[in-house]
Amino acid sequence: MLDRLAVHELIHRWWFAFDEGQFDVWPELLTEDVHITSRSDTGDSPYEEFIASDNRGREQVIAWQRQHREAATYPLRHNASNIHIERVDGDDISVVSYMYATNITDGQVTPIASGVVRCVVRSDGAAYRLAEFHIVLDTHAVAFTERQA
């Protein structure tokens, strides 16, 4: 039986553990074969090298995520909103949400990123874990009718 609250909590827990650098928690949140990607919507933002990733397997994902987190400032706050389940296929639950991130600049909360996160949460019977996590950050605006789906 699908536990929607547990799916939501997993996504929120990932972002909290990421921001706080709780590296010891990360493995329990990811499947062994996890696949994580991140990029900007254009693929050529000024900070593309910093954000672009395509990693597979828990060890590779954790290594890249740790390097990425350690290179960023603290505090860093990622917030997931409008989380909803798109479909369920066996033990795989496809979820989509918005992501909004802030940090502190000159003593003020500063928005640094927003985007869309598509993920697959998988149940192994004992827990829900992230099997896929694909982030596309917003970097430019276009007329609604000109957007690419």
From TrEMBL:
It comes from the Bacteria. Residues 2-132 form the SnoaL-like domain. SUPFAM superfamilies: NTF2-like. Coiled coil: none annotated. It holds the Pfam family SnoaL_4. This is SnoaL-like domain-containing protein. It comes from Streptomyces antioxidans. The lineage of its organism: Bacteria, Bacillati, Actinomycetota, Actinomycetes, Kitasatosporales.
